[in-house]
Design a protein that fits this description.
The protein has 174 residues and is an all-alpha fold. The protein contains 9 helices and no strands. Helix 3 runs parallel beside helix 6. The longest helix is centred in the N-terminal third of the chain and has 22 residues. The relative contact order is 0.12.
Length: 174
Amino acid sequence: LIIGYNCDDLNSLFPSLRKLGIKIEEYMFEITKGINCYKGFVFASGIILGLIGYKSSHQIDASIFDLAKIICHRLCDELKDGDDTYGKKCYLKYGITGARGEAENGFSNVQIILENYLSEISKRSDILGNSLSEKFFNLQQQCFSDFYYYQPKIIMLPLRINIFKYNLNIYCVN
């Protein structure tokens, strides 16, 4: 959020986010002893959080998803060249673009799921809150509490600490 918030030029946002994402990814590999547990999640959430920060400090009508299409334009071209990763192997063998393709397409699958999810939340009376954003925030808080409580803490805790040591805060506003 802070990187996006402090960014003056949308074109320079992705390289800045990638730099931080690589540090978080290196830490993930260190604590998981080389196992890729969250690489796609770190990549996608970094872009989305960076764009939320950018959008909150600039007067922009475009959605987070439209901005993702702009900063991730031609991101899948990296799959043709570059390092030999599992993502590249899947792309060359099956045409699957993975997290890069999702970002390049403005997180189109996330948009579909989110629209359906928010539509269902707006109908629920058991979730506290008058507005959709209040309901979403309250449900998110409950889900995070339940998820964190029931999950094994061996891998989740160090990654959570590393991400949040940058003092990132998310606020839902109506």
